[in-house]
Amino acid sequence: MQELRLYDPTRHPHNWTDIVHPGQYAVFHSDVHTNMEKKADGGAVTASEESTCLVFDSLDEAEAYCEKKVNQISVLRCEIYDHTGKSKPPKFTYVNKAYLKSPGKHAFWGWILVAASVPCFWIEWHWHGTLIVPVIVGINLAIAGLRMVYWGLGGTEKRRSAREL
């Protein structure tokens, strides 16, 4: 494992993707809630600090590291990328077990909100469009519900935790 600065103007090549070879994997750390970049110890990256990633020589080493890290620091997310970098989605995203089913909960509550909008539209239809509040509430419930479904089902990355394996 080696820590690598993402961009170093004094290094040749300058970018980290030109240094990582096929078969090597880079691990990036971020906060589960805010998606803000974090250091390997879970601390925040300040404006004066350089962004870094950890480079591993094999996928097994990177996965073992990520399993250990997310169990030590529960709010840390570890994403594993191959030598092509962030131009593609991560190979794997590791989170603590507590956050593993979070997207499914968002989708569930989203469908509940969509279902709750149906009676509002029925009330408006029953009163022949003379009421305004039910249709406004129904539209807001449907939009909020569909947004939650999108959030819940939109994260198609492979999330793993130590206990899932």
Report what the structure shows.
This protein is of the alpha+beta class. The chain folds into two domains: 2-98, no CATH class; 102-155. Helices cover 37% and strands 16% of the residues. The chain contains three helices and six strands; from the N terminus they run βββαββααβ. Strands 1-3-2-4-5-6 form a six-stranded mixed β-sheet, covered by helices on one side. Helix 2 (102-126) runs antiparallel to helix 3. The two termini are 22 Å apart. The model is unreliable at 161-165 (pLDDT under 50).
What is the element layout, followed by pairings?
Elements: E1 2-5, E2 25-31, E3 52-56, H1 59-72, E4 76-81, E5 92-94, H2 102-126, H3 133-154, E6 159-160
Parallel strand pairs: 5-6
Antiparallel strand pairs: 1-3, 2-3, 2-4, 4-5
Helix pairs in contact: 2-3
Task: Describe the global form.
Answer: elongated
Largest sheet: 6 strands, mixed
Strand content: 15-25%
Mean pLDDT across all amino acids: 87
Structure described in brief:
Helices cover 37% and strands 16% of the residues.
Protein traits:
alpha+beta, 2 domains, 6-stranded mixed β-sheet, 6 strands, elongated, 37% helix, 165 residues
